[in-house]
Amino acid sequence: MNIQSITIRHLQMDLLAPFTTSFGTFDSRDFLLLEARDKDGTVGWGESVAFHSPWYNEETLETNWHMLEQFLIPLVLNRDIDHPDEVNDLFQHIRRNNMAKSTIEGAIWDIYAQQTNQSLAQALGGTKQTIDVGISIGIQPSIEKLVDLVRGYVEEGYKRIKVKIKPGWDIDVMRTLRETFPDVAIMADANSAYTLDDIEHLKQLDAFDLTMVEQPLASDDIIDHATLQREMTTPICLDESIHSLEDARKAIALGSTKIINIKIGRVGGLTEAKKIHDYCLAHDVPVWCGGMLESGVGRAHNIALTTLENFTMPGDTAASNRYWARDIIDPEVTVDNGVIHVPDKPGIGYEVNRDVVERYTVAQKTYEA
Ligand code: OSB
Ligand code: MG
Fold first, then answer.
1. Which of 25, 114, 247, 331 has most Cβ atoms within 10 angstroms of its Cβ?
2. What pLDDT is stored for residue 40 in this prediction?
């Protein structure tokens, strides 16, 4: 591969319904879409999952654009690259900015898969033809509204229900859900809304047979989570705290996490995501693929990654129509009785619809070799 041009687009897409977490509400999604063109004309796509504001982590759409323009694109343009794993090495001396790195690395994986005539899933070493998916539901105005939503998604076939929690929207909510849906796999995601002072409070969750509780404590913590895990029977799953294989190794060694949520952007790309997957497989730690309210491009990357064997728990990669009136890919992602059929076409396996992309684009810039 030898990348000759890269176009960054800023897209703005309305969400069909607001999505509320313990750190804020999203009404629409602003993100960067990256298009890379190889010297042989092959085009690959990547998506930055950074949000408009630094709520989930320190990156934003603007910091990603800055990192891409000033540092990452110059490292990649006009350089001979044999395998996408090399991109991870090329970026190694730049600290963090993982979502920015992942944007470009994902596009190069897409090109590599097409040029070797494989689906992205195959290129990554994935074997599954279908993947199990769950759904993540934001904080609602009332428990009744939440119960209605959960009922609808259970009827649609989603294999696991994840509910956002925060102080004041937690124990009663989870109790009601468990009583209403005794046999459904249910979990809670706190997005770092608690501290160790809440240990006695959080322990009440143990009564509801939850599959796991995701990131209850600080986004940069792996010590207090180990303390909490010793006190709780519900497995803790880290999301925000894991940025690399090294983080995963340390968190597992400390007993801070029994399950890992892998997000491609948060860990700096597919190569690092696969390393974490492989390490967890060797250490009997199940993983699942998290979501960042992605458009079709990021969603396609998530689907491909989830075909690796240790993704044994349903992820957050729901159908396009759970988020968007019209996704930017053809076909849109559909969920059939809780599973997504993995495309077998070369690359990400979905066609980016340039007319739709155009409609959502508010800014763009091209960088040539
Ligand atoms: O913590 O997993 C999270 C959405 C925005 C920010 C953080 C998270 C989420 C989700 C939604 O849970 C997952 C999705 O449906 O894409
Ligand atoms: Mg999470």
1. 114
2. 98
Angle (nearest 5°) at CA 26 between 290 and 144:
85
Q: How far is the CA of 27 from the centre of ligand 1 (A)?
A: 13
- Fill in the DSSP letter of residue 204: G
The helix/strand/coil state of 68 is: helix
Confidence band, pLDDT 50/70/90 cuts, at residue 352: very high
Q: What is the mean pLDDT of residues 74-85?
A: 98
Atom of ligand 1 nearest to the CA of 191: 1
* Ligand 1, pocket residues at CB < 6 Å: 21, 56, 136, 189, 191, 239, 290-293, 316, 318
The question of whether 164 is a catalytic residue gets the answer yes
Single-letter amino acid code for the residue at 316: D
Mean pLDDT of 291-310: 98
pLDDT tens track for 218-248: 999 999 999 999 999 999 999 999 999 999 9
Task: Single out the catalytic residue among 101, 159, 164, 166.
Answer: 164
| Ligand in closest contact with the CA of 56 | 1
| Catalytic member of 263, 274, 275, 365 | 263
In the annotation, is 263 catalytic?
yes
Quote the tokens at residue 293.
Answer: 């309210």
Q: What is the mean pLDDT of residues 57-81?
A: 98
CATH 3.30.390.10 assigned to 3-117+353-368: yes
Q: Where are the domains of the chain?
A: 3-117+353-368, 122-341
The position carrying tokens 């320190």 is: 58
Backbone angles phi and psi of 80, in degrees to 5: -75, 125
Q: What share of the chain is helix, strand, coil (3-state, %, to 5)?
A: 35, 25, 40
CATH of 122-341, one of 3.40.630.10, 1.20.950.20, 3.40.50.360, 3.20.20.120: 3.20.20.120
Best residue among 13, 15, 16, 19 to mutate for probing ligand 1's pocket (most ligand atoms within 8 Å of CB) is 19
